[in-house]
Amino acid sequence: METRRRTLPTALATTPALSAVTPAGATEQASNTALYANPAWTEGTDWGRRTRRHPVDDRSTTGGAPSIRSTVIAPHGGGIEGGTSELCLATAGYHPVDLSPTPPAGPVHDFWMFEGLMRSGNGDLHVTSTHCDDTIARSLCAGSLNVLSLHGCRPEQAGLEPGAAAVLVGGLNPVFRQYLTEEFTAAGIRAVTASGGQEIAGIAPANICNRTLLGMGAQLEMTTALRAAMFADGKNTLADRAANLLPFFWTFVDATRRAIDRVEAGQAVRSQRCRA
């Protein structure tokens, strides 16, 4: 079942280029619930949500009840942390332009995203990951073995040199972190172990990426320069990004998918051993 709660007003064609995180002076929201109840913003105009939950066939009587293995989320999509919506869709198996299945075998992961849709000031819609209480997001994560949460950051927040193009790998799942780091490195993408504050490192148990069946997940913080390299010059606006993907975008997506495939394969083997 897919839910779309988003419109793209014509004015969004002038939405600024890639943002990173809540800018200085922006108002941090206490929770999604508080944001949704705020009369200053309207769903579908100022902000939106998109989600996809795949049906699960649990009619079999020969084995345990099936579970969703992986969910991909972008808590700060749209104009909040630019590029994370497109990466969320593509990693889940949907082309960002028209949601056509990629790869051809069809989409394989559930997804959820919250998006800022305003021409400016989207940073005011930022809710920290430990305060994300969207009921659909929490439901999807709680029913998944793995959650991959996608974010944008500035290099200085990660202790990197100005202009650095890198992805910070965090979260509480050490195996998932290892596979992500290995796949990014193999693809020629600079991968750094996230450290420092809990939000950047994704190590708080309350972080939405860790609210899984296993109590641990993974979080990616991508620097502004890394995300900018995924989209054509001058086309990094909310209205234009999806249709102007560069090859590096798919290099990153493919590496991410390989890491997810590896962690799922290991879980499948362990599940079979438990049933034996």
Can you describe this structure?
By secondary structure, the chain is of the alpha/beta class. The chain has a single domain (28-41, 68-275), classed as Aminopeptidase. Helix content is 27%, strand content 18%. An eight-stranded mixed β-sheet has the order 1-2-4-3-5-8-6-7. The longest helix is centred in the last third of the chain and has 29 residues, at 247-275. It is globular and about 50 Å long. The two termini are 33 Å apart. The model is unreliable at 1-17 and 19-25 (pLDDT under 50).
Question: What's the short story on this structure?
Answer:
With 276 residues, the protein is of the alpha/beta class.
Give the SSE layout:
Blueprint: E1 2-5, H1 32-37, E2 47-52, E3 68-78, H2 84-92, E4 110-116, H3 135-142, E5 144-153, E6 167-170, H4 174-186, E7 191-193, H5 198-201, E8 218-223, H6 224-228, H7 247-275
Parallel strand pairs: 3-4, 3-5, 5-8, 6-7
Antiparallel strand pairs: 1-2, 2-4, 6-8
CATH architecture assignment name: 3-Layer(aba) Sandwich
CATH topology: Aminopeptidase
- Category by helix and strand content: alpha/beta
The largest β sheet comes out as: 8 strands, mixed
DSSP strand (E) fraction? Answer: 15-25%
The order of strands across the largest sheet is 1-2-4-3-5-8-6-7
- Rg calc: 18 Å
How do the SSEs run, as a string of H and E?
A: EHEEHEHEEHEHEHH
CATH class: Alpha Beta
Number of spatially distinct domains:
1
Mean pLDDT across the residues is: 87
Oligomeric status: single chain
Query: What general form does the structure show?
Result: globular
Number of beta-strand segments = 8
Classify the helix fraction into a percent range: 25-40%
Distance between the termini: 33 Å
Per DSSP, the total helix count is: 7
